[in-house]
């Protein structure tokens, strides 16, 4: 049996752009992709803290060091530049592998640069960039 777990997440990233005319996806700075172990075309869930929308799309690389977080295509209607989002990737694991797995939780600053990387979340801890 397989279990689906959070593989990684980028916590409280700031949307830098929303491009309705692009065919789809989320463009993410390659530094953030690397820190969160995200691959090109990987499926991710987006949670918009400003309006509560949750949706799925796939990742395309943005310029390294740019801090870019750009929602493209129809997803651009669900965000505005400046919105705070959480980008979550999931993986399927066998139970034994799942019990030994540590996710990557990427905390970013106001410019979407990596500020801290953790391997767990604790209830009651509030993290603001």
From TrEMBL:
Transmembrane segments: none
UniProt-listed CDD domains: Asp_decarbox (cd06919)
GO MF term set: aspartate 1-decarboxylase activity
Pfam families in the record: Asp_decarbox
Broad EC category: lyase
Predominant location: cytoplasm
SUPFAM superfamilies on file: ADC-like
PTM field: Is synthesized initially as an inactive proenzyme, which is activated by self-cleavage at a specific serine bond to produce a beta-subunit with a hydroxyl group at its C-terminus and an alpha-subunit with a pyruvoyl group at its N-terminus.
Pathway noted in the entry: Cofactor biosynthesis; (R)-pantothenate biosynthesis; beta-alanine from L-aspartate: step 1/1
Co-factor: note: Binds 1 pyruvoyl group covalently per subunit.
Residues forming the catalytic site: 25 (schiff-base intermediate with substrate), 58 (proton donor)
Reaction equations catalysed: L-aspartate + H(+) = beta-alanine + CO2
Residues recorded with modification Pyruvic acid (Ser): 25
Keyword annotations: Autocatalytic cleavage, Cytoplasm, Decarboxylase, Lyase, Pantothenate biosynthesis, Pyruvate, Schiff base, Zymogen
Binding site for substrate: 57, 73-75
UniProt-listed GO biological process terms: alanine biosynthetic process; pantothenate biosynthetic process
EC code: 4.1.1.11
Record-linked InterPro entries: Asp_de-COase-like_dom_sf, Asp_decarbox
Annotated localization: Cytoplasm
Gene Ontology cellular-component annotations: cytosol
Cofactor(s) this protein requires: pyruvate
Protein's job: Catalyzes the pyruvoyl-dependent decarboxylation of aspartate to produce beta-alanine.
UniProt subunit comment: Heterooctamer of four alpha and four beta subunits.
Family: Belongs to the PanD family.
Designated name of the protein: Aspartate 1-decarboxylase
């Amino acid at each position: 049996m397989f279990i689906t777990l959070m593989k990684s997440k980028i916590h409280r990233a700031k949307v830098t752009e929303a491009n309705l005319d692009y065919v789809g996806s989320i463009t993410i700075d390659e530094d953030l992709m690397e820190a969160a172990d995200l691959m090109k075309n990987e499926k991710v869930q987006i949670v918009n803290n400003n309006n509560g929308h949750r949706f799925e799309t796939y990742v395309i690389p943005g310029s390294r060091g740019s801090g870019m977080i750009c929602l493209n295509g129809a997803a651009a209607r669900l965000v505005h530049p400046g919105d705070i989002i959480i980008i979550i990737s999931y993986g399927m694991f066998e139970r034994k592998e799942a019990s030994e797995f540590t996710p990557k939780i990427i905390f970013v600053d106001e410019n979407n640069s990596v500020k801290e990387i953790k391997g767990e979340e604790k209830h009651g801890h509030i993290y603001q960039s």
